[in-house]
Amino acid sequence: MIVGKVVGSIVSTRKNENLIGNKFMIIEPVPGMRGEIGSFVAIDNIGAGIGEYVLVACGSAARIGCGMEKAPVDAAIVGIIDDPSGLADL
Fold first, then answer.
1. HSE-up (13 A, CA, CB side) for residue 10
2. Would you say 33 and 5 are in contact if contact means Cβ atoms under 8 Å apart?
3. Are 65 and 78 in contact (CB under 8 A)?
4. The pLDDT of residue 53 is above 70
């Protein structure tokens, strides 16, 4: 899992039929979890908003975590962090 901040959203009017009705958010990983990863897009079916810190599952865990096993999903927001004060150490 990756901890990141929602920094924007993406609107796609044409997409795979398994993705219709889903929201896509742009995630910026917190500095301690960046590694080689820059900003990326994650599917959001829990209602995260811009500016919130979130937990993101990646790879096949993302499809399972959002209940979309047959969708082309590589990253999914699976939790919203209530108190991001501990993230300053990352």
1. 15
2. no
3. yes
4. yes
